[in-house]
Amino acid sequence: MHWLARLDAAATRMVASAGRSTLAGLAVASLGLGVMWGFGHLSRPGLLAILVSALLALLALGRGRWRQGRGWWVVLVAICGVTNVLYARHFLTNQGLQVGFALLLTVTAATAVWLPAGCCATALLGLAFLSVVGLAASVWSWGSMNLDVFTALSGAAESLIHGHNPYGPVFRYFVEAPPGYVLGHFAYGPSVPILAVPGRLLGDVRVMSVACMAATVAGIWWLARQGQEASDAHRVAALAVASPLWAGMILNTWVDVYMMVGIVWWLALRRDHRIWSIALLSIGLMVKFTSLLLVLPAFLWSRRGRVEVVAAVVISAAAMVPFALITGVHTYLYSFFGYQLALPFRTTSLSLSALFYQLSGAELPTALPLLPVAAAIAWIVWRRRARSEGDLALQAAALNVAAFLLAKQAFFNYYFASEIMLLAGIAGAGVAIPARDVGLPAVVEAPLRGLRRRFGTRAPGPIAAAADREA
């Protein structure tokens, strides 16, 4: 029975060493598993895992210490790493090689988080990154992909290389309605084809997706180094590398990787390099208009954040003006906004609306996703004052999940943004927001104060002291 006592003692230590980072890390693992279960398509186990992830993210927004024990880092990285094995269920080429790289990723990343920061841990992180690239390369068909996003991005980048308007060519996009496709111009912001040009020159735009992965992980590491527990920065980076969504994002050319690079580096640089952070945020916001949802918590809670978001939006809009004038303002606006809004309902979406359709045969109203978003915003404003960069990122992750659970379309890449924001939440856990910077906009604060007086509810606080304690 001696081994049982030792096992019980180890379990007790694990439970005692858990923190808010543990809840956020479990949310990362649960979200990754949910998306990977059906590779972003409707599955009840996958949808349940995503709902669990959202609940864990909300719980992580509570009070208490962030820091977790080393054993939890190993467990979380191992879960995320092993989940990469599920790629072999979707891609039927070189399945043994895919499993091998997934296991190599798991072992190297888990070992890296067990070790203290240093050369050995860094080398293992590099090997883990190469394992993700190897996993993607196992099924990578260089320069070709039967996917509308790949064709459109390659064509737009090619147009730029030859000095033409990237919004000039017409591409064929899949829709789940007769005749099965629609014709349209490039449907994303100009920062995407501009950044994809080096990849196109090398023969495959997905090269830049790999570069975006490296840059995003580096941004998460840089953000984690600014907190009070900078010694765990390599562990946060290892969890980011082990995230099971990378290979799918790379192989399918989904442009959300460009969006998240800008947003992550904005969070990482906004304390010490504000001008650069705004420039990078403008690049991220330019990709898709849904990116605004990810910066909404910072706009609500941070006075500096409101200035930065507005400045980035203005810069993004100014950068789009030349393309809009060349393309035609109406055509450009429809390509960037109208096309996404006009897409039909998808019955295979990884969402509650698709599940409702599967059970009842009825489609939910298009505007219904606004209700959970409004409810989430109201709850955050009423009960969850942000005290750190980690809180802002976790709130953004929860808002993004709420937005797409009832949307007419929600697939693999739609949840990728939440995965990255959860990781940014862990990285920014010890990066406290200065007390003088925290405050709601006056148009929100005044009526909210009146409601609190009426219902006898105290505002969350105090701010600065709580931030210092919880970091």
Describe this entry's structure for a reader.
- This protein has 23 helices and two strands.
- By secondary structure, the chain is an all-alpha fold.
- It has one domain.
- The protein has a two-stranded antiparallel ribbon with strand order 1-2.
- Strand 1 (171-174) and strand 2 (181-184) form a beta hairpin.
- Helix 13 (256-269) packs antiparallel against helix 14 and helix 16 (303-327) packs across helix 17 (329-342).
- The longest helix is centred in the C-terminal third of the chain and has 25 residues, at 303-327.
- It is globular and about 70 Å long.
- The relative contact order is 0.12.
Beta-strand residue percentage = under 5%
The helix count comes to 23
> What best-fitting shape do the alpha-carbon axes yield?
globular
Give the termini distance in whole angstroms.
Answer: 39 Å
Please give the domain count: 1
What share of residues is helical? 55-70%
- Could you give the order of strands across the largest sheet? 1-2
Q: Structural class, from helix and strand content?
A: mainly alpha
Uncertain spans, ≥5 residues at pLDDT below 50? 461-471
Major sheet description:
2 strands, antiparallel
Radius of gyration from the alpha-carbon trace, in angstroms: 22 Å
Summarize it.
The protein is an all-alpha fold.
Q: Any key phrases for this structure?
A:
two-stranded antiparallel sheet; 2 strands; single chain; mainly alpha; 68% helix; 2% strand; 471 residues
SSE layout:
Blueprint: H1 2-16, H2 20-37, H3 44-60, H4 70-83, H5 87-90, H6 95-114, H7 119-137, H8 148-161, E1 171-174, E2 181-184, H9 191-202, H10 206-225, H11 233-242, H12 246-251, H13 256-269, H14 274-285, H15 292-301, H16 303-327, H17 329-342, H18 352-360, H19 370-383, H20 389-405, H21 412-427, H22 442-455, H23 464-470
Antiparallel strand pairs: 1-2
Helix pairs in contact: 2-3, 2-4, 2-21, 3-20, 4-6, 4-11, 6-7, 6-11, 7-11, 8-9, 9-10, 10-11, 10-13, 10-21, 11-21, 13-14, 13-21, 14-16, 15-16, 15-20, 16-17, 19-20, 20-21
